[in-house]
Amino acid sequence: MGGDKQQIAVYDEARLVGEREAYQNWLDRRAEEVYRIATSAKAKGLDFEDEVEIPRTADLASRTQKLLEADYLHGLNIEDDLRNLLRTSERENAAIEIALDVAKRMHARTSDIEKAIDSGIRVGLAVLTEAVLVAPLEGIGGVRIMNNADGSEFLSIDFAGPIRAAGGTAQALGVLIGDMIRRELGVGRYVPTTPEVERVKEEFGLYRVGMQYKPPPEEIEVIVRACPVMINGEETEKLECSGYKEVRNIVNSNGTARTRIRGGVLLVIGEGLCLKAPKILKHTQRLNVPGWDFVAQFVGKDKAGAESEDGVKRREISKISRFMDDIIAGRPVFGEPGEPGGFRLRYGRSRASGLAAAGVNPVSMEALGGFLSVGTQMKVERPGKACAVTPCIDIDGPTVLLDDGAFRRVATDRRVARLRGQSAQHLGLGRDSLRLRRVPREQQGTRPIGLQPRLVGGRSGRRAGPP
After folding, report:
1. I need a labelling partner for 251 at 20 to 30 A (CA). Which of 81, 83, 214, 445 fits?
2. CA–CA separation, 274 vs 267, rounded Å?
3. In 43-166, alpha helices (H)
4. CB-based burial of residue 30 (10 Å sphere; 0-12 exposed, 13-18 middle, 19+ buried)?
């Protein structure tokens, strides 16, 4: 803390902990009261169901159990095992381990390979999505054991449109989990035919829904031919394929051909396997999973698809223009990619910001006409794709250059009001604060930031104030 800052309050940890616990106890009491009233009302038999449909859960383990127990666990209790795994390992590792365990236990109980694989994949996907999304239920249409051209068996996973809600990491890990389960249960690998590969290429060319990344045909060829599991899917679009309309293994469960575009297949390949290759490679190397070496060629690629021509790492910070591709008419643009005049990056967080939130000085919000307010979503160049705006008074506000040549750092909303009558050029919109932990989550390295006056000269350094 700089020398010009004075200590205005003492952090009373005991008091704050007591207040938090009292508030949590109050929430629990009120929730119990509401559920008691709802249960009494349901018991009258005037609704479609006699029980409250939304179960009460305490953590991720209980949410996963309640979400899947009716249709996919078939009496299998996984709550305690999952809770123990989450205590000792990260969520992604726990998802893989519990998925394998559920699949093996379900196969031992039912001797049904398809049901065992289906249950395992859904459990893993539920853990990856915190068991709060529809993806584990509606994002997977089902799994089937099908035959290659030589008669050998392989695993086919039918992805549906709602798999988009799971995000790229869960989509890609869902495929990896399916491959690991089929190995445990003795199912062979997928060997695609040329028409099956060309069908996926044709669907990517016809797909008009927005995607973060649409791979070129040569990358599609690599993924479809090398992936040990068939990434299949239900028809989600009205447009039909013409070149490869009826293809072997791209069929419904009753044998009829799937002639329309399968959106789930394209999402899993484009936004999952291509963009989340670093995470897939990390898990395959840690677990020594064979057959996934092909993802290594996608690791060095940024999400816009650009690669270094000579493969040499450079100190120059490349521009990322992807956030400019989704501009909506009428929405302001605060800065061009990598150009002066926009927000400057600073690593850190305030009490009001969270994992995917950015702190902006309230004066900057006022200087921009009030368009940015608390909770506004803002597309950013890096790190990540977007953030929610929160106020933070400990970072700089905007700087302007007036027509008379005067340079001003605007520190109050009153000064903003006075300068509005003068012609001014924004040299900078201030700083936006991003949580440092978010950077490795986005698979991006840290980038150099501007000079921090309060960090120069140590504890006695004074922060430059407004002129």
Report:
1. 214
2. 10
3. 60-68, 79-88, 91-110, 113-128, 135-138
4. exposed
pLDDT at res. 41? 94
**Which residues have CB under 8 Å from 355's CB, separation 6+?**
435, 437, 438, 441
CB 363 within 8 A of CB 430: yes
pLDDT band at 460 (very low <50, low <70, confident <90, very high): very low
Q: How many CB atoms lie within 10 A of CB 35?
A: 14
Quote the CA–CA distance of 133 and 131 in Å, as a whole number: 6
3-class DSSP state of 146: strand
The C-alpha R_g of the chain, in whole angstroms, comes to 27
Give the pLDDT band of residue 315 (cuts 50, 70, 90): low
Asked if residues 253 and 141 have their Cβ atoms less than 8 Å apart, the reply is no
Over residues 369-385, the pLDDT tens digits come to: 777 888 888 888 776 67
- Cis geometry, peptide bond prior to residue 383 (ω within 30 degrees of 0): yes
* Residue 409, pLDDT above cutoff 80: no
68 pLDDT higher than 60: yes
Cβ(187)–Cβ(103) below 8 Å? no
CA distance 269 to 298: 12
Looking at residues 218-244, what average pLDDT do you find? 93
CA torsion angle for 318, 222, 285, 176 (degrees, to 10)?
110
Tokens standing for 411?
């520190």
Confidence check: pLDDT of 427 > 60 = no
> What are the tokens at 395?
């970072």
Question: Are 127 and 98 within 8 A, CB to CB?
Answer: yes
DSSP string, 364-403: HHHHTTT-S-TT-EEE-SSSSSEEEEEE-TTS---EEEET
List, in order, residues 6 or more apart from 86 with CB less than 8 Å away: 59, 60, 61, 94
Look up tokens 């992805």; give the residue: 159
Joined tokens for residue 455: 């960090």
Q: Which token pair is 140? A: 């997977």
Consecutive H or E run containing 154? strand 153-159
* The residue to which tokens 């001014």 are assigned: 424
Query: Nearest CA to 301 among 331, 333, 277?
Result: 277
